[in-house]
Write a structure and sequence with these properties.
Blueprint (H helix, E strand, L loop, with lengths): L9 H5 L5 E2 L5 H15 L1 E5 L3 H10 L4 E3 L4 E5 L8 E8 L5 H13 L2 E6 L7 H5 L2 H4 L4 E6 L5 H6 L6 E5 L11 H8 L6 E3 L5 H17 L2
Parallel strand pairs: 1-2, 5-6, 5-7, 7-8, 8-9
Antiparallel strand pairs: 2-4, 3-4
Length: about 220
């Protein structure tokens, strides 16, 4: 393609096919990319897509699916049946963090992981987290998603034995600096076993969680 160099060998090298970042792509380019990737791979997974982009792709590929919360635009041929293996816990501090959480959860699900969701269990009502902690501890990996001061990741890091992937979100008032406050809290966490991805990067967290989950399942 004149405008894109598709990485058709990525799944062989890394275990994951190339994922499309939709935001900012010209309309015609996006449609052609989806068509080409689908013809080669039998599935396409795109992040940060708009409703308008969905409508555009749908005209050419009626079977494409769009989730307005996560902004994921995906398509998978009927003969691809990835069963949900293992368990990944996706946790949010608040309801406002759910769009980032769904980006993480749906990434992991698309690539064959089983996901359990634990939403609105932030530390301002610690009993909500403690009520679910036994369930969360069963997961091979935990994704902790929080804005404001980002404390959820540290609390979870002190309560579970498996890796915690912290995702700061841009949710919060002025001094949260569009997620920078949560990012710094998570990077400076005193809890062991906590790693951090970029602000609002649910996709990145879902990808890493899938890698961890696959490794855990392969050793069972």
């Amino acid at each position: 393609m004149d405008f894109a160099n598709l990485d058709t060998g990525r799944e062989d090298r890394t275990g994951f096919p190339e994922v499309i970042f939709c935001e900012g792509k010209p309309d015609d380019f996006l449609v052609d990319i989806y068509k080409n990737v689908y013809e080669r791979e039998g599935r396409v997974f795109g992040t940060r897509a708009s409703k308008a982009q969905y409508e555009l792709v749908k005209k050419e590929m009626p079977q494409v699916a769009y989730d307005e919360v996560s902004r994921i635009l995906s398509i998978k041929s009927a003969d691809i049946t990835d069963r949900g293996i293992g368990e990944i816990a996706v946790c949010t501090a608040g309801t406002s963090d759910i769009p980032v959480a769904e980006e993480a959860a749906q990434t992991a699900e698309f690539f064959g992981g089983h996901v359990e969701r634990y939403y609105d269990i932030g530390v301002s009502g610690l009993h909500r987290l403690l009520d679910r902690i036994d369930d969360i501890r069963r997961a091979n990996c935990v994704i902790a998603i929080a804005g404001m001061e980002g404390a959820l990741a540290s609390v979870l890091g002190g309560q579970v034995k498996n890796p915690v992937i912290a995702v700061p979100t841009s949710i919060g008032y002025g001094a949260s600096f569009q997620g920078l406050s949560a990012l710094l809290t998570m990077i400076n966490s005193c809890a062991n076993g906590v790693s951090v991805v970029n602000i609002d990067n649910g996709y990145g967290a879902g990808y890493i969680a899938t890698q961890i989950n696959r490794l855990a399942c392969s050793q069972e």
